[in-house]
Amino acid sequence: MGIAGGLTAASGTVLAGGEYEHDQRSSDADSVETSKEMSGAAVRVAHFSPDAPNVDVYVNDEQVLADVAYGDVSPYLELKPGTYTVTITAAGDPKTVAFEGDVTFGAAYYTVAAIGELGAGTFEPAVLVDAGSALARLVHAAPDAPAVDVYADGELLFENVAFTDATDYVPVPAGSYTLSVRPAGDPETTVASFDVTLERGMAYTGYAIGYLEPPQGVMDREFTVELTVDGPTTDDDM
What sign has the CA pseudo-torsion 154, 156, 162, 168? Predict the structure, then answer.
């Protein structure tokens, strides 16, 4: 479970074809066919806790799903990337709370699967990054470069990464992007930009290397981002 502060309001449109019968959100959004077409997070809920009753699901105190039965899997719901308070209650009984906690979603597809048993005290939501996503991280290894922000097609991906910092992996919808490296907090200035293609199910590291201003006599060491393929994603990466 991702734990962070700073909650963002849910946007509330359905992404999946075939609307869930008890979905409480608007149904006028177009279906999304590929992950690259999605600019936000897509989240679905699965009820796999065998001794739990039907449940209602709330995001930031707004009910998004009602009367979800054991074995049910909702369609994807669209959220802006951010951190949300997710609450799972007994269906029709908002005072009986099975789980409440903060969950962070990036711009990717997720399944929040309710697993474990209420009676055994093991009930919890497992947050899984679904197919359609890649994982990416950034290592700042350019000694004369300031802290940087990195944008993917204009959307902030990494923020305030300083020299020697290495970020955690974050999920990114698979697809082709233009990455822009900008001084931290200065979205109008682009230091460098690069085109990359990220394949679903793969993990990548972008290494910011070289000099913004190479020392006198130093050749072929200009600032760039070197992208490496780290291999298939695993549960340990999530």
Answer: negative
Say if residue 208's pLDDT is above 90. yes
Residue 36, classified by CB atoms within 10 Å of its CB into exposed (0-12), middle (13-18) or buried (19+), is middle
CB-CB contact of 181 with 192 (8 Å): yes
Q: Which two tokens stand for residue 205?
A: 């590291």
**Rounded-to-integer distance, Cα 221 and Cα 121, Å:** 56
Structural contact between residues 160 and 149, judged by C-beta atoms closer than 8 angstroms: yes
The structural domains of the chain, with segments of one domain joined by +, span 13-129, 133-237
Write the pLDDT tens digit of every residue in 210-223: 999 999 988 889 99
From the centroid of its chain, how far is CA 144?
30
CA-angle at 62, arms to 56 and 68, nearest 5° = 15
Which pLDDT does position 67 carry in this prediction? 95
Can you name the CATH fold of 133-237?
Immunoglobulin-like (2.60.40)
pLDDT computed for residue 4 by the predictor:
20
Architecture of domain 13-129: Sandwich (2.60)
